[in-house]
Design goal:
The protein is an alpha+beta fold. It is built from five helices and six strands; from the N terminus they run E-E-H-H-E-E-H-E-E-H-H. The protein has one domain. The chain has a two-stranded antiparallel sheet with strand order 1-2.
Length: 121
């Protein structure tokens, strides 16, 4: 059964390469969480976005299937994950900057490069 990758069909036997490439992407996301690159209103800045470690530890990457085709879910299962990623304004008016840790790995083609390398094997 073919796998649809942005409109292109990929033969089903490459499903394992797709899954493994997503696992590489998940590690890249986690690396961004711990990178000392994020601006913060109070010193020190730049810094990582790890305070208690709960956000980092809440990551789950799950192999799934969608209509029979391979799919992969990346999730951070803490209630404040979206506020950290997108930024937020707290009830007291404090503004939290966005720290979109998924942006760079997606924009720089981590998934595509990993899939290409794994598929060639």
């Amino acid at each position: 059964m073919p796998l649809d990758w942005q409109g292109d069909e990929i033969p089903g036997e490459l499903g394992e390469a797709f899954y493994r490439a997503n696992e590489v992407l998940g590690r890249a996301f986690q690396s961004e969480v711990t990178a000392n690159k994020w601006q913060w209103p109070n010193p020190p800045s730049p810094r990582d976005i790890v305070d208690t470690g709960n956000l980092r530890q809440s990551y789950s990457g799950e192999r799934t299937r969608e209509r029979g085709d391979p799919a992969f879910d990346h999730a951070w299962n803490v209630e404040y994950a979206m506020a950290v990623h997108e930024g937020a304004v707290l009830k007291n008016g404090t503004k939290l900057p966005a720290r979109p840790w998924t942006e760079k790995p997606l924009d720089t083609g981590v998934l595509e490069r990993a899939f290409d390398a794994l598929a060639k094997r």
